[in-house]
């Protein structure tokens, strides 16, 4: 049966390659990106039954608008793939004074997921892109100024999304499933090329896994787990993600940062 699937950050890299696979499989794919021109090109490249949604996830207002736009068209969403991510960027600070890695990699997907949960039934799936790069999270930094280095910000943001994925899965025992995944280290995405200066490995390594996670029965009952594609199996994330106290502190930090943004916007 065809599914309706939203992929953030779908104009290039793993997101676009995943979209191509899912569209070829007959699924309705909702492509998100920041650029209208890139979205148009991505839609043409993906083929099949696709729709495009433009939003900058470094902005909470645009993240909210994305959720509303999807909900205005679709009464049901089967799968959300929170793929959009930032590592190195010439603008590391958002307009609200946050580190853009925390905003795009951690906070925006949390808020987007919360807003879209009412569209997702018990059989739905939320697939969150983590990374092999995971570092202990300073909960206060989630809503604070820039961190000292790009890698530190990125690694903390990826552990943070892994931690809230596990917490949300525990909160939703009847579903939808919430899964965190390292799609593979140093895949040939723009982020890897710009951030590490290497060509990277075949994007299909990650795209094939994400497409399977979205629709395969193999991944129907794995909520709360972490998949490490470097090892090719489910495994344990960073030990902090297995610590209930540290996880609760990070989730509280995520919610506090988002509450502060809401208050600043007068929501």
At a glance:
The protein is α/β, with parallel strands linked by helices. It has helices at 13-24, 36-46, 60-73, 100-116, 150-171, 190-196, 204-215, 244-264, and strands at 4-7, 28-33, 50-54, 79-82, 125-129, 177-182, 226-228, 233-235. The N and C termini lie far apart (39 Å).
What secondary-structure arrangement, pairings included, does this model have?
Blueprint: E1 4-7, H1 13-24, E2 28-33, H2 36-46, E3 50-54, H3 60-73, E4 79-82, H4 100-116, E5 125-129, H5 150-171, E6 177-182, H6 190-196, H7 204-215, E7 226-228, E8 233-235, H8 244-264
The tally of beta strands, per DSSP, is 8
Distance between the termini: 39 Å
Question: What is the CATH superfamily?
Answer: NAD(P)-binding Rossmann-like Domain
User: Residue-averaged pLDDT, rounded?
Assistant: 93
Q: Supply the number of structural domains.
A: 1
What form results from the Cα inertia axes?
A: globular
Secondary structure category: alpha/beta
Q: Strand fraction band?
A: 5-15%
Query: Remind me, CATH topology?
Result: Rossmann fold
Tell me the Rg in angstroms: 17 Å
What is the topology, as strand order, of the major beta sheet?
A: 3-2-1-4-5-6-7-8
Helical content band: 40-55%
Low-confidence stretches: none
Largest sheet: 8 strands, mixed
CATH domain class name? Alpha Beta
**Could you state the oligomeric state of the chains shown?**
single chain
- Second-tier CATH architecture: 3-Layer(aba) Sandwich
What is the element string, with H for helices and E for strands?
EHEHEHEHEHEHHEEH
Number of distinct helices? 8
């Amino acid at each position: 049966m065809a599914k309706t699937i939203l992929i953030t950050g779908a104009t290039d890299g793993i997101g676009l390659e995943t979209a191509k696979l899912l569209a070829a499989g007959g699924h309705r794919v909702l492509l998100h990106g920041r650029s209208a021109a890139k979205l148009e090109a991505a839609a043409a490249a993906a083929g099949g039954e696709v729709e495009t949604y433009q939003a900058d996830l470094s902005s909470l207002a645009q993240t909210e608008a994305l959720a509303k736009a999807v909900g205005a068209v679709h009464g049901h969403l089967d799968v959300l793939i929170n793929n959009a991510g930032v590592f190195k960027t010439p603008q590391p600070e958002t307009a609200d004074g946050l580190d853009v890695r925390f905003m795009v990699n951690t906070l925006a997907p949390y808020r987007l997921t919360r807003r879209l949960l009412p569209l997702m039934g018990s059989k739905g799936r939320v697939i969150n892109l983590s990374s092999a790069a995971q570092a202990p999270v300073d909960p206060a930094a989630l809503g604070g100024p820039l961190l000292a280095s790009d890698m530190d910000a990125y690694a903390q943001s990826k552990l943070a999304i892994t931690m809230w994925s596990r917490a949300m899965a525990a909160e939703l025992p009847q579903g939808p499933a919430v899964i965190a995944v390292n799609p593979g280290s140093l895949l040939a995405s723009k982020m890897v090329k710009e951030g590490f200066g290497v060509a990277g490995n075949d994007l299909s390594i990650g795209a094939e896994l994400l497409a399977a996670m979205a629709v395969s029965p193999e991944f129907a009952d794995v909520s709360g787990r972490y998949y490490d594609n470097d090892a090719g199996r489910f495994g344990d994330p960073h030990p902090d993600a297995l610590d209930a106290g540290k996880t609760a502190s990070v989730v509280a930090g995520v919610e506090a940062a988002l509450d502060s943004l809401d208050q600043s916007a007068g929501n």
